[in-house]
Amino acid sequence: MIFIKFFLLLLFLELHLINGYQGCYKVLGRLKCPTDMYRHRHVKVILMDKDYLPWETDDEMGSNITDCWGNFEVTGCGEDFGGWNHPDPYLHITHRCPEKGHTVSIARRIKIIYLNQTHLPEIIYIDTALLD
């Protein structure tokens, strides 16, 4: 009898740990390059899920390209291992905006914007983010 109770307890714990938590996000925002008024066009914005476990890599949840005014909308879903582990969304932005005081841009610069965990149907709004 004790063996059966122990087995059921282990089965319950295993099922709880195997299940993941899924979260879907929608992010609206605008990017602006303060040093070159044309460098916020066609910038790739990737919605990522930060994974802190050592055997996991960050997951891409969705991506999009900014319009000619720097506006973007990106949506996506992510799932993390374990029922306690919620996706940790952030934006990974690859751009060519020159640094302040420079007129020449390097081939590729990265900007990271960490987001709060606001799931759909709520929308995350980003005020104008400067690419500096």
What brief labels describe this structure?
single chain; 132 residues; mainly beta; Immunoglobulin-like; 4-stranded mixed beta sheet; 4-stranded antiparallel beta sheet; 1 helix; 8 strands; elongated; Transthyretin/hydroxyisourate hydrolase domain-containing protein; Transthyretin-like; secreted; signal
Describe the protein's architecture and organization.
This is Transthyretin/hydroxyisourate hydrolase domain-containing protein. With 132 residues, the protein is mainly β. It has one domain: Sandwich (Immunoglobulin-like), CATH 2.60.40.3330. The protein contains one helix and eight strands; from the N terminus they run αββββββββ. The strands form two sheets. Strands 1, 4, 7 and 8 form a four-stranded mixed β-sheet that branches. A four-stranded antiparallel β-sheet has the order 3-2-5-6, with no helix packed on it. The relative contact order is 0.28.
Would you give the CATH topology?
Immunoglobulin-like
Number of domains: 1
The description of the largest β-sheet is: 4 strands, mixed
Give the class from helix and strand content and strand pairing.
mainly beta
Radius of gyration: 20 Å
Shape category? elongated
Helix content: 10-25%
> Helix and strand succession?
HEEEEEEEE
- Helix tally? 1
